[in-house]
From TrEMBL:
This is Cytochrome P450. Heme binds at residue 452. Pfam families: p450. It comes from Dendroctonus ponderosae. The keyword Transmembrane helix applies.
């Protein structure tokens, strides 16, 4: 009987502790849900415990579709900004292009940091230019910009062009056999080979099943993984708790793979006095030259920036190529128009695909621009406020640490900005029409000082891949 009494008492204490914990959490959320009202901002009413998120599962990992609904509701009510909640975290959604311009360009110093989960204490090898904050980001940007100079782009153009050869051989094989092909996987293999060549000076061998380590790593990273999803969700619920728990977004296998590749590659170049015109060489020189300095570019920095260039370099470009080919398949007349331009420009340049000839393909660029409008690989641009900011023509002031979000998918599909927005129409971006587009409704690479450092390379890579596929 005494044991049963103790057990009952223990269960009572546990129940009381759980109820107390729930009440504390509920009170915390309830107070947080008054944030935008206290700030005098229009807001969308949140629900406990998801805030304005629609779900708790895998779909909650992206703002992409969620922010479309928030944007539409705010537009209906005539708001230029609207307060929302990501679980208990206040998030300000930017609706008006002029407000977006102010945040990303005019008043950039108030919004220098990206809102993206990272864990510098427990995961130092995944700190990079993508997540670096304030002065650290400025230094990295200055140091890494030379890799995308016009001179380097010309060199990389030839490397990318050569990387397309195995892809075209595979297409020829499928053409002869008549078997169906997975175009998404094929262009991803091409993009992986490009990054392996341009970033590391290596043949990634993505089209050789016995040598395709880079492709296997890239595919594995984007596979559905419960552990990574849980880490991402906890990071969205509370960044500080996720960092305290040592959670990370980039898995160990990816970090370990690139750590080994970089160390081996660097050792080979140093021991054999080999120099190459690639990202690896730039980072290696930066690593060696900054040793002993207070702001040294460490080996962890080396690894982190290589990883982010690999992930961003192959995924965003392959996604763009995939959707462009999808839309051109759905619109044979536009496909033929693109092909005719490619053949005409190549004939003008003696049949050779060169850096100059690719720049003459204006309609192809329109196809890519229209693809990025409908299917931006990065669905939102999110920035942290780093010092208090009052929005023009309002009394709304956001504090340091609050996230502001530019909803790229919603802007690109807004009929007020793009008539008949679901229709794929590259002529929206023709020389006659593009001036009528508000620049800040189309920012697939971000805008302002912190736009995508690899924009020119990404467009070049996607263009070469499409040219090779379409001209056959």
């Amino acid at each position: 009987m005494a044991v049963l009494g103790l057990l009952s008492q223990l269960l009572l204490y546990i129940s009381a502790a759980l109820v107390t914990l729930f009440l504390c959490v509920y009170v915390y959320f309830s107070y947080s849900f008054t944030y935008w009202k206290r700030k005098g901002a229009p807001y969308i009413k949140p629900k406990f415990p998801l805030g304005n998120n629609d779900c708790f599962g895998a779909e909650a990992l992206s703002y992409g579709l969620e922010t479309v609904d928030w944007y539409k509701e705010a537009k209906r009510k005539g708001h230029t900004i609207v307060g929302t909640w990501n679980y208990s975290n206040p998030v300000l959604l930017l609706i008006d292009p002029e407000v977006i311009k102010n945040v990303l360009v005019k008043d950039f110093n108030h919004f220098t940091d990206r809102d993206f989960f990272h864990n510098p204490k427990h995961d130092p090898k995944n700190e990079s230019i993508f997540v670096a904050e304030n002065e650290e980001w400025r230094q990295l940007r200055q140091r890494l910009s030379p890799v995308f100079s016009t001179a380097k782009m010309r060199v990389m153009f030839e490397l990318v062009n050569k990387c397309a050869e195995p892809m075209m051989q595979l297409f020829e094989t499928y053409s002869q056999s008549g078997d169906p092909m997975d175009i998404k996987d094929i262009v991803a293999m091409f993009a992986t080979d490009v990054i392996g060549c341009v970033a590391f000076g290596l043949d990634a061998g993505s089209f050789n099943p016995h040598e395709a380590k880079f492709r296997l790593i890239g595919r594995k990273f984007f596979e559905s993984n419960l552990k990574t999803k849980i880490h991402l969700i906890i990071g969205r619920i509370n960044v500080k708790i996720a960092q305290f728990l040592g959670l990370r977004v980039i898995p160990d296998f990816l970090t370990n793979f690139f750590t080994e590749v970089i160390a081996e590659n660097a050792r080979f170049r140093q021991e054999n006095n080999v120099r190459k015109a690639d990202l690896m060489q730039l980072l290696l020189d930066l690593y060696e030259s900054s040793k002993g300095q207070n702001d040294a570019f460490t080996f962890d920095d080396f690894v982190g920036n290589v990883i982010v260039f690999f992930i961003a370099g192959f995924d965003t470009s392959s996604t763009t190529m995939h959707y462009a080919l999808y839309e051109l398949a759905r619109n044979p007349d536009l496909q033929e128009k693109t092909r005719v331009e490619i053949e005409t420009v190549l004939k003008k340049h003696g049949g050779h695909l060169t850096y100059e000839s690719f720049q003459d393909m204006t309609y192809l660029r329109q196809v890519i621009d229209e693809t990025l409008r409908l299917y931006p690989p990065v669905q939102n641009v999110a920035r942290f406020c780093v010092k208090p900011y009052t929005f023009k023509d309002s009394n709304v002031t956001v504090e340091k640490g609050v996230s502001v979000v530019v909803p790229l998918v919603a802007l690109g599909r807004d009929p007020d900005h793009y008539p008949d927005p679901e229709r794929f129409d590259p002529d929206r971006f023709s020389s006659q029409n593009k001036d009528s587009i508000n620049k800040f409704t189309y920012i697939p690479f971000g805008e302002g000082p912190r736009n995508c450092i690899g924009k020119r390379f990404g467009l070049m890579q996607s263009s070469i891949g499409l040219i090779k596929v379409l001209k056959t």
